[in-house]
What does this fold into?
Amino acid sequence: MKKYSILFVLICFAAILSAQTNKKYVLVIHGGAGTILQSTMTPEKEKLYKQGLQNALNAGNTILKNGGTALNAVEAAIKVLEDDSLFNAGKGAVFTNEGKNELDASIMDGKTLKAGAVAGVTNIRNPITAARAVMDKSEHVMMSGKGAELFAAANGCTIVDPSYFFTTQRWNDLLDAKKEDSLKALHKDSTKALLRQPDNHDYKYGTVGAVALDMYGNLAAATSTGGMTDKRYGRIGDSPIIGAGTYADNNTCAVSCTGWGEYFIRLVMAKTISDKMEFAHENLKDAADDMIIKKLPALGGDGGLIAVDKDGNFTMSFDTDGMYRGYVKSNGETGIEIYK
Ligand code: ASP
It folds into this structure.
């Protein structure tokens, strides 16, 4: 008799556990959108970008496969991209007008709607870990500049000398941007000199992002960036702003954006997609496409986003020539793409 009751308890336990885990998970990442043309890309460079994206997918997939959370998976994927100098986040961050690197990042948990962000930080190796610390270890959502740096150091984030972020490629990008600014000033078109605007041919947004659904049905989103080349006056873009560049809600979707940040802020991009699903009952793809393909260019902006919904449907929508992007699903389906 006792044997049967133990068996019964075990069966109940297994049933409860399997009801909580549907075993289905999805991870989607991006490494920025922009004028990314096959004609101007070398095969070697393309291989490096794809390898960088693959490394990030592997890091997140390992966590999700082993029953880890969406939150841990997006953080791990972003950390890999931050450490890769090809992407405009962490090590590969772009330069400000003053020749500095000021980094922004944010992360959001769709289960609790808790979020964390840092903006304008100059010495945190992985800003996404600092954003996570703000979420987990403080009462706040967003910290900036010196304060964020002190908080990150006190909470175990790796601090580096700002020179860690120097890369020749990004420095040359700044020199090109400044050359263009002086040309514009010469032609009295100085309004555009306030911020590097993506009107030159080779413009790329290299921000990185990750969204995930884990096997417990929880969603998470994270975004990290160096912002825009030649930015000034403490400019902050959409990436660290919850609701603009990043959003996650278990009832709807998780979103991470890349593009001309000012427009993403004005459109409250990530939260609007969630709202369109919740209140207008749109599906994820329609909601994202409406914002990225119609509303964003109508205002004069451009860029893209990745998003996954609570059922594991995902979309990678952009209105630029390309977007570094990739995904992996629990059924083994995976892909990495760059161009349209
Ligand atoms: N959205 C970022 C910003 O405006 C730039 C990017 O996506 O690369 O700061």
